[in-house]
Inverse folding.
């Protein structure tokens, strides 16, 4: 652990100062804070209950890489931090069922593809398929031999073209097919 923060201002300062690979957040996310969190260039692990984690998913641009239920054993948090640090995501067993129910309830049924107003480039389609497999940006970048920044750019384009707010929606749209 390299730092602690009591509020969003302290968090952003600590992230800038220490440049952590992983940030663990617990507590409520306010709507106005969501945009500020997108600037964090680290994996984010959210610890909370079902209501807290679904709120994070709604308000963030998929900068959340792992979700851990607040009542799970601490080993789940350790596992989440390890996986995010390795470039993969994680959802603790205490939240996986609730997360799937949330995704089913918030996404349209019978999707055959990601609906877009503009066609995806071949690279965006390739990145989309890897996102749908649950791979993190760092892992996709390694696999495709590109920078993580380039992958973030492609994911952002896909989200924009699909009119979706998060990676979780992209993943869930594949489940709904």
């Amino acid at each position: 652990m390299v730092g602690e923060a009591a509020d969003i201002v302290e968090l952003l300062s600590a992230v800038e100062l220490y440049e952590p690979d992983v940030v663990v957040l617990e507590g409520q996310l306010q709507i106005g804070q969501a945009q500020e969190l997108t600037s964090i260039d680290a994996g984010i692990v959210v610890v909370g209950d079902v209501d807290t984690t679904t709120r994070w998913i709604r308000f963030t641009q998929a900068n959340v890489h792992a979700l851990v239920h607040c009542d799970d054993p601490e080993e789940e948090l350790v596992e989440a931090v390890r996986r995010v640090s390795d470039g993969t995501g994680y959802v603790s067993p205490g939240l996986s069922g609730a997360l799937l129910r949330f995704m089913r309830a918030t996404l349209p049924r019978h999707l055959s593809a990601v609906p877009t107003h503009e066609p995806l480039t071949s690279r965006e389609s390739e990145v989309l398929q890897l996102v749908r497999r649950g791979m993190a940006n760092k892992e996709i970048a390694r696999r495709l031999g590109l920078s993580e920044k380039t992958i973030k750019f492609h994911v952002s384009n896909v989200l924009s073209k699909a009119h979706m707010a998060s990676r979780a929606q992209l993943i869930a749209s594949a489940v709904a097919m």
User: Anything to note?
Assistant: The CA atoms of residues 78 and 131 lie 23 Å apart. Strands lie at 22-26, 43-48, 64-69, 90-91. The chain has two domains: 8-106, 122-175.
